[in-house]
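pasting for ref
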Amino acid sequence: MISNITLGQYVPGKSILHRLDPRTKIIWTIILMVAVFLMESWQEYVMMGAFTIILLLISGVPVKQTLKGIKPLLLILIITGILNLFFIGGTPIFQIGPVKITYEGIISAIKVFFRLVMLVIIASLMTLTTTPMALTDGIEKLLKPLQRIGVPAHEIAMMMSIALRFIPTLLEETERIMKAQSSRGADFDTGNIIARVKSFIPILVPLFVSAFKRAEELAEAMESRCYRGGTGRTRMKEIHYTPLDLTISLLSVAFLGLLFGARFLS
């Protein structure tokens, strides 16, 4: 289950999404996620779903690799859908006492489920097709104008990059500790919720120790290389906007126009 989390992982490739400037991917990931929340009609859901599938196919990332990132969130997605199913008023289809399922509740649950799935896929594609270093440079470039008002753009970008980079590492460490504890007789799958929570305490202690140790080693490595932040820092690979970024941006603008144009023109 833990190994299925794809956030922070990178899959090397030479696809269209891999070649895009990281700033383009960051900006359009945010725009598309906002667009997902603004969807209302089934036509918009179908169009956005088709667009997400197209992004998935042209990313060059194995479909299985992307979709497995949904599995750890499947329980949350189902619970969210069920909450909408029972607490949305409307035309009742089935009712037992105060509990009733409405037609509007079913529609809302389905929409919420697909909306969250699309959000996970869109966010995963950005990290799966962008190296941590490129992501850091992209965030720093986007935040650079805010330096005039005292915002530490480089430090924020570095912290976000380190956090994303260490997600897969900590997940691997968690899985390793769980296997070690299971070999010693620990049981994480049986018992009630309280018992399962207590069974994770032997995992959290060594995990925190390992995390602090890795953080200390990283700090020492950065100090030994005379790291002093973004001042005077040079880069082996500079990021630049290309005609491909302009083309993809124009196509995305055209898609959003088709997606929401009918609603605002009617």
